[in-house]
Amino acid sequence: MYPQAPAPPPNLRITFPPPGFFLLDARLLIVLDNAYPLYDGSFKQGLDTAVPVAPGYHQLTVHIAMSGITRNRVYPINVAPGRTYSVLLEYSRLWGNFASSPKIFER
User: Fold this and answer.
1) φ, ψ dihedrals at 53, nearest 5°
2) pLDDT by residue for the chain (107 residues), tens digit each?
3) Please, are residues 60 and 77 in contact by the beta-carbon 8 Å criterion?
């Protein structure tokens, strides 16, 4: 048996702070590159996760489903080699959706 290479360290952190008071919960689904589900759960609980991604262009899709109403946002993220990024998702109660672009910080 051959030793396996260690997994690469997480270099993309995705954060959505709990949004505060909501009467009803919604399903929050976050998918990377239309193929890798990163989160499928409660909107009210928020999210803080870190994943390893290869350098290059990626798409982060955020989907909310609440009482028959769905909202989607697709965010492009370009990951440079050797860099680590934090993506902060912000929800607007006024529009009932996430902001048109996330805040992206290089760490």
Assistant:
1) -130, 150
2) 677 766 677 899 999 998 877 778 899 999 999 999 999 999 999 999 999 999 999 999 999 988 788 999 999 999 999 999 999 999 988 878 899 999 999 87
3) yes
In angstroms, the CA 43 to CA 64 distance is: 8
Among 61, 62, 65, which Cα is nearest to 27's? 65
Parallel, antiparallel, or unpaired for β 85-88 and 12-16? Answer: parallel
Determine contact, residues 88/71, Cβ cutoff 8 Å. Answer: no
Is 82:92 a contact under the CB 8 Å cutoff?
no
Give the global pTM: 0.84
